[in-house]
Amino acid sequence: xxxxxxxxxxxxxxxxxxxxxxxxxxxxxxxxxxxxxxxxxxxxxxxxxxxxxxxxxxxxxxxxxxxxxxxxxxxxxxxxxxxxxxxxxxxxxxxxxxxxxxxxxxxxxx
Length: 110
Hints:
Strand content: 15-25%
Shape: globular
Strand order of the largest sheet: 2-1-3-4-5
Number of domains: 1
Helix content: 40-55%
Distance between the termini: 19 Å
Largest sheet: 5 strands, parallel
Order of helices and strands: EHEHEHEHHE
C-alpha cells in the first residue's frame, strides 16, 4: 500500500512509516507543493496512491467522485507527527482491508 501524504501532514511520515508502507510519498517530494487538490487527486490516481490527509476537501472529493484514489481522512486534530504515525501504524490492518475493498472510497481514522 502506497500512501501519498497531503501538505497538511509532515513529510517525515514517509520515513517514519517506511517499514509499514513502503514506496509512500509526500506531496512536496512529488513536486506537488501548494498544488491544487485536483492535481494531487490526479497524481494519486495515476500512480496508485491512497491519499492521507487531515483536510476535509479530500473527504468531500472521495464521497462525490469515488475512487481511485482512495482517501484516508486523519481525524486527530492538532497533534504531533509521532501521533499520526502511531495511529496509521496501529491501523495498518484496517488500511490494508480498506485498500482491498472494491466499494469504499473513504476511511476516517482517529
